[in-house]
Known about the structure:
Blueprint: E1 4-8, E2 16-17, H1 59-74, H2 98-101, H3 106-115, H4 130-143, H5 147-160, H6 162-165, H7 189-193, H8 197-206, H9 221-233, H10 240-253, H11 258-261, E3 271-273, E4 279-291, E5 302-309, E6 312-320, E7 326-333, E8 339-346, E9 349-352, E10 356-357, E11 364-366, E12 369-371, E13 374-375, E14 381-394, E15 397-408, E16 413-414, E17 424-427, E18 433-437, E19 446-449, E20 452-455, E21 462-475, E22 479-485, E23 493-498, E24 501-504, E25 509-516, E26 519-526, E27 534-541, E28 557-558, E29 561-564, E30 567-570, E31 574-578, H12 581-584, H13 605-620, H14 626-646
Parallel strand pairs: 4-11, 4-12, 13-16, 14-23
Antiparallel strand pairs: 1-31, 2-30, 3-4, 4-7, 5-6, 5-8, 8-9, 8-10, 14-15, 15-21, 17-20, 18-21, 19-20, 22-27, 23-26, 24-27, 25-26, 28-31, 29-30
Helix pairs in contact: 1-4, 3-4, 5-9, 5-10, 8-9, 13-14
Amino acid sequence: MNRILFTLSLLVLLLVLTACGNLLADDIAPPPNSDVPSPVSAQPTRVSSPSYPLVKPHAADGEAIFEEKCAPCHGTNGLGDGPQADELPNPVSPIGTSQVARQSSPAEWYSIVSEGNLERFMPPFLSLSDRQRWDVVAYSYNLSMEEDALAIGEELYQANCANCHGMQGRGDGAAATNLSTPPQSFVDLNYMASRSTAEFFDAVTAGSDPDMPAFGDQLSETERWAVSDYLRSLTFVPTDEMVASQTTEQDSMSSDNPVESGVSTDESDESINNEDNVQVDLGAVIGIVVNASGGKVPSGDSATLYGFDEMQQTYTQTAIIEEDGRYVFDDVEMPPERVFMVKTDYEGVTYGSDIGTAHAAGMILDLPITVYDKTTDDSTLSIDRLHIFLEQESEDTLRVVELYVVSNLGEKTIAAKGEGEAVISYSLPPGATDLEIQDGTIGERYVLTDDGFGDTINIRPGFGEYQTIFTYLMPLDGKIDVTHPVSLPAEALVILAPDVLNVKGEGLQDAGSRNVQGVQYQMYSGTSLSPGDEIKFSASASSPNLMSSFDNTSSTSLVFGLGVLGLALIFSGVWLYRRNKSINGDSGAPDDANIIHQDDQEDDIDTVMDAIIALDDQYKAGELPEDAYIQRRGELKDRINTIREEQ
């Protein structure tokens, strides 16, 4: 009998606005050509874009692109004086001036590069990859930033802002834990890419409730712009010249203690020879443990640094967490492109940092960790989305796949009330057999309950932080009834079934259809559920030979997105295989050759965007090296461009 195998090759992100199908925002006019915009201006247009970079754009990598694509009109220095500028009927925007650059956000400029503005004779540059567009945007901002001003801005930032926002802008300053709200992190690219430098200036000038004071009376206008420009520079990796300018003074100060300075030292001093007499670059990893619940930090405990090459763990080192929560890993072997992550245990739960990538010898990576206090009160748990997928295994058997996306809206990690007990429970309908759970089995992480099973994993705070997928078989004798209660409140129910199955249920509404690999699927949406309410629906075959609708001669990969009630379900990265024993053998191991990539399917923009977001999650989790991530993301974005051209 065929079985559905689950391979979680990408982390599953299950909640996005339907607008993610609109890959690029509407055309946005180029920045204004006014002489000197007012420092306090109207709020710039927000660009609703899911394509913010996860890896900082490199200004240096955008230089050659700018020279080829942009300089003919905008000029080498971005002053609007390129050789083709005089041939245009409208003035070319001087994007290389601070007066213009400060008024627009990187997301707006990314949208312009992607879509163009033909009314002003600005073409779209769809030939550029997603990464290249961000790099050229970074270089464009680089043109308007004076090195001396950035150095002054950094000094002012360290003197006035670092105590709260942190030395590197991560929101982890010494005073951060004493504030009523966490300070803004300036390394959050979603936030930084959607804000203009003028907005930073406004915040520095007037302050921001409830904790940030105004500096309008303490700093001159020039100094406030210098700080704002420095914050903008944190959005991307600057050119080598800017790095040299910004770090010269710090380098001279860091000779006695390079780790505390947070900057790279000379490469020649940062290497060793290993047992094979091969030179290995050295660097350092620093960080701080912050308790977001307001409790203690695990001082005296150990933090472990893990290094990965080509997705394989190849390096580890342990350090002690100091009383203030800080930890330091010295003499870390950092060959180029090695990926690092730090983990620590707190109250029996393992917490990890974001990932960091080594790019040069002598790097100092800052990888903070957030931990939470633990509670057994599960009242802050809710099911954001509950999705059910139906397919027929045989003439008398129906397979049901259930997917849950659960959020913990509290400020503590939720744990089981007793040893070996479930944190969250799932019921199964009467008659269910052959239970399979996507990432575990009964007796390990999962335990049996009176009417189903439960998961013993701790659930951390976060929106959509926890997902579970499981499957079971139901006997099909012309018709089946599926009925079982939910243990948590659920905001929405979505059912997807081949259109040869008739699905009915109280409160279910037809939500449209979608073609997936030549099979038409029907979607149904249900109303919200309270704890104890029942999922209740019936399914019957509309054709005496339902199996003829499926191809059982080869393995099939189903990757689909469901748009329901203004939201989209992404199953991207959860590959559902129908295994043919003649291909994969009795072991059930999936054959990589049979995995169908998203861009090989009969897909649409929604589906490919689903895959991009899932890919982003995989990179965030440290499961992909940067080069592989950038390459695959570029392939998917190219696929979207192709689809748009074909429409």
